[in-house]
Design a protein that fits this description.
Elements: H1 2-10, H2 12-36, H3 42-72, H4 79-99, H5 106-121, H6 127-141, H7 145-172, H8 176-179
Helix pairs in contact: 2-3, 2-7, 3-4, 3-6, 4-5, 5-6, 6-7
Amino acid sequence: MLDRIIEIVLAEAKWIPFALFVSLAVATTWGLRRHRAGQSDWLSLAPSLAYGCLLGILGFGHVLAVGIKLAQGSLEGSAFLLLALGVVLAVPAWWLVLDFRSEARRRPLLLNGWLALSLLAMGIHNIPIALPGLLNVGLLLHRRRAVGWTLLAITVVGYLGLLIGSLIFAASGQSFEDFSGRT
């Protein structure tokens, strides 16, 4: 039983669709409640909540997988660097989840930017998952309703693309390195 749990935790292809489903469900539920209550701030805040949940889950999963591989003795690469990569994403992501409604909007703005730029610094292959953070910056800064709706539409299409891509990745049964052509 424990071996099966460890196998699931180490299956990186399963973390991405799981994180996307959870983050989109949480943000959609919160956004619909705010919309029904007549509060218009949901348009710019729900995507930050989704992004924080997504990267918080993925960062936590990364740290957990690195810890398990380290304990098993099967870790390839620097344990410190790999743990640091997960923490660099997980801590600001969960901070964003806890503080996405900040009145000043400065902190959510900085956290979205930090997360997106951190992902881009880790490699060009992270553009699809960094893009929602950059769009969130625009959503937090926009002043015109049409701009907000346009950015939100692009964000939703981007998340749907990520979800479809992650499901294809999960169905492939490959590791990230195999799937991306790196061996």
